[in-house]
Specification:
- By secondary structure, the chain is an alpha/beta fold.
- The chain has two domains: about 230 residues, Aldolase class I (TIM Barrel), CATH 3.20.20.70; about 55 residues, no CATH class.
- Helix content is about 45%, strand content about 15%.
- It has an eight-stranded parallel β-barrel with strand order 1-2-3-4-5-6-7-8, surrounded by six helices.
- Helix 7 links the parallel strand 5 and strand 6.
- Helix 12 runs antiparallel to helix 13.
- It starts with 9 loop residues before the first strand and ends with a helix.
- Bound molecules: flavin mononucleotide.
- Flavin mononucleotide binds next to strand 2 and helix 10.
Amino acid sequence: MKFPKLSSKAILAPMAGVTDVAFRALARKYGAGLTYTEFVSSAAIVRNNKTTKRMTLTDPSEKIKAVQIFGNNQDELVQAAKILAKDFDIIDLNCGCPAYKVLKIGAGSELLKKPEIIGSIVEKLVKATNKIITVKIRSGIDEKHINAIKVAKVAENAGASAVTVHGRTVKQGYSNTADWDLIKKVKESLNIPVIGNGDINSPEAFKEKLEESGVDYMMIGRAAMINPYIFKQISDYIKTGKYKSPDKLESFFEYMKLAKKYNIPYNSIKHHAIKFTKGIDSGSAIRIKMSQCKDIDSLKKILKNL
Ligand SMILES: Cc1cc2nc3c(=O)[nH]c(=O)nc-3n(C[C@H](O)[C@H](O)[C@H](O)COP(=O)(O)O)c2cc1C
């Protein structure tokens, strides 16, 4: 299956605890070309776990629906993918998560140690779902085991429609900077679309890395978490060479509206409020106040008084 042509080259990265349906709808409103759910456990999907099912809600603005799964048991991954294939167009296999609780079950970035297993999973997912299967990887395990090109080729040969590369090793976590030279090499080695990821935190960085690496799409994580308006800034910058500063409060109130529609739990809303106020004047004092809030009305009051 061919990866679709997207309306924008900027994709919202899957982020656990961040990319809930309301946040994804907001990113789409600002022009994200594609939005992935946060990673969901294949075991939990198979067990029909309610909290996990909530993570797979989508907004009508998500014209192409993309979900990310993680797991270690191949049969369970296939079963979960079959269930998700009823609602999603794209299923992404997480091979990049460095969290201990994921690694210890042999899932996420632990799979990078066994590229042939990634190949086997991808092949099975393609066969079982007839959907677009994508894979998200890191540059390698550590500086001595950089294997993104190899893993990406295995995924391509197994039938993946695109590969996302976060240019950091598992060992690096989020330290240092993403290796865009390696991302470029992955792009040059594959025939399917490559999505570059790591440290894109401004429209300028977006344009520069896109041109330098030649990747097909770019995925944005942390910068979108604190400024979802970045998707609009990127499209303005690409079209006109200029872009406006974000109105963080407007973005947040927009998020609140969507969060209400989708019954997003209060703690998630608070978490977003705290992230959104990064970079605004006296943000840290406001964040301390917000962290003590117990309900939406008191959160709104603080924000309205800004
Ligand atoms: C809070 C948070 C949660 C994340 N959750 C996921 C996840 O569920 N699945 C995944 O593949 N990557 C996850 N990531 C990694 C991002 O998708 C992305 O690869 C990483 O942040 C690098 O991109 P950036 O520099 O644009 O942030 C997460 C990152 C953050 C900061």
